[in-house]
Amino acid sequence: MWEFLVSAVINGLMSGAIYVLVALGLTLIYGVLHIINFAHGSLLMLGMYAAFFAWSMLGISPYVTLPFACLGGFVLGYLLYRGVIGRFSAGKDENILLITLGLAIIIENLSLFFFASDTRTISMPGGDDIIIIGWLMISVPKLISFVAALVLCAGLSLYISRSDLGKAIRAVAKERQGARVVGINVERIYAISYGLGIACLGAAACLLMTSFYVSPAVGHAFVLVAFTTVVLGGMGSFVGALVGGLIIGVAESVSGAFLGEQLGQIAIPLIFVLILLFRPTGLFRGSQ
Amino acid sequence: MLLEVDRLCKSFGGLQAVSDASVRLPEGGIVALIGPNGAGKTTLFASIAGFIAPDSGTVRFAGTDITGWKPHRICMAGMVRTFQITQPFSRLSVHENIMVGAYARTANAREAADRAEAVARQVGMHHLLQTESINLTVAARKRLELARALATQPRVLLLDEVMAGLNPTEIQEIVDVVKAIRTAGVSILLIEHVMQAVMSLAEKIYVLSQGAIIAEGLPQEVTSNTAVIEAYFGKKKVAA
Amino acid sequence: MNTEVTPARRGILVLALIAAVMGYPFVFTSNYAIELGMLVLLGAFLGQAWNVAGGFAGQFSFGHAAFFGTGAYCSAILVSTYGVNPWLAFALAAVSGAVVGGIVGALSFRFGLRGSYFALITLAFAEILRVLADSVPITRGGLGILISADPGWKNLQFESSTGVYYFAAVLCAISLLIAYWLKTSRFGARLAAIRENEAAASALGVNVFWQKVHCLVLSGAMSAVGGAFYVQKYLFIDPYLAYNINRSVEMLLISMIGGAGTIFGPFVGALAIGLIGEGTRALSTAPGLSLVVYGLILILIIGFLPQGLIGLTSKLRRKGASNAS
Asked: So what's the pLDDT on residue B235?
């Protein structure tokens, strides 16, 4: 029983790290642009398809695809902002939500149209390897993803806090008009930040594909996970995304273990509802 | 006394926005609240009208303690406020805007429409009834604020800087409208910066500075009061 | 040319519309065409249900499937497990939708949620209900509920596709009447005020919280009726069909594309979506293409035509008037 719980927690931490990576992008986008990116889940799904096809058509392992997925994600995000989001972002915040919803619908259904609804998985060499510590069984790909996700998060965090670009991003997040006054090209920073957010998804997608599956519908599940993580952690807070992601991962895993595969899925939307009602600002205050 | 505000206090964080403010409005009277920027006038108004809950003190309207009541309840009881920065229902026409106020007193659409039209006439907006309110000039928006509030058939009207942003002609027009409203039986408490309006309307003035009432009385008394002058202009340096 | 829409003109348009809807099955007699017409009418009904909250009151919801699915399950469970008369179950389904709408509204608005946060929490509520429907015995979980076929009006089951079609037409007509009532009543005027400016509405005597809750109650009841109708038509429901996000999105799309906050917006939207769906099917039968187009249109509408397709008519009218002068 005890081992059962610990096992669930450990597994939860593993998946949680990837949620952190997904949430990082979302919280960065919210923190800087103040938009709720509903397209986040479907963009992740796109990245996962990219990783899948890189493997199935070119034989490239997702770990190798990762840097390219990040780059591709960045470019895609940048262009999406320039071409669509930035252009239509005037006005009420519900408008942006609907625009990103429109994007999500388009991406998801283009995927459905071109890739069909079958689930796809990557079976890599070493994909089923397990490390055994006493009674504890840890999947190797998940462990690698865990470490990689945390490293990437730390890397991004460092970059944002140390680099000049990072300073500009933080300036725009804190005080848009002031940033404009000192000569920062705010629109460019917006596009870059959106791009960075999607780059995170590229990385998360590759890591996910080492142990998960992809289908056009996968985006929905991840949208809710991502939002719950970000709202729990605090919109705009990197630390919040880290803590939130891990908590959500563990909560999902533990509830799945104790409530069963179906009912266990209630954990995330339930947490989401409770947080929104009772503590919508989340655990940590935003502003990286 | 129709409206009695007693020792009202409100602080935000460490800042004491209003301290021990007491204001009286007699039935049928017009009373003005003046003071330099940041004196706490709008906070006081918001506390009276139910948008903010005061920390302490009471608000009595027609003998009933309404402290802490929500705005809609206070409106139904007969006291309504207008907003300093106008808040039109943008995509609705002037007529529809005023009807929302009229609906406070009737559930019937025909009645509400007729009443709204009558009120529009009262404030001189009859020719603008079908205009979408987002297309109105500043002066017209002010009248709309007034009209909407009037349509609720209030006993007390709280006017928050209704003259702000108007030119002298427009100010005189609104002053006349306000006087007519009072003649029709509505008591008025107004916040105002525009002294032209204050002097022609107010029967009594309260001066608020840094959250506290530093003077009250007839307009002539108050405007020659040194404390009031200092509050606005600072202490006068005596020439050596 | 006089381009103003007078009451007389409007009356004629409405009569023409009624005639067109009633006469449609006689012109397009294939089962496929009649079924398509029925789906458009059902879509218009469901779109109007969303419109009550999203368009008239400005409370955008991403989770209306929560109400639709509840109505569907309520009806299905009562009929198949408890043998309740389908007409009674239909009515009770409406009540179930009203209750869930009231709960979602009361919770969300009590805690001050609005705008995007409200949209997201409705999404979560729908998801919670989906998981519950997937897990509890009374809904038979993932297996879903089958209603035994026994066609006939007393069972609220339809013997022919024209029967379903006209039932849907009646529902659609009722929804239009409800929308008309909202446009001309105090309740509707208050919802519009809340949509535009809650603080100002409150200052004018509107109890914003209760009006919003009532609005969700109505919207929920209508959505639930749509769900109950769905069950009686297809005789099957499962957690996915009831509560999946596509259901919610569809209701939203219909209203937004046609024109949120208008009486005929959802009807126009459902028509547009139906036509586009048929158009894309001609290009390719692979699923997804039509939704891609809908997504594109949604973005274009938000960006260029926020009043929806209905807004086009007033834009054209204005152009006509300025050309004439």
From this structure: 63
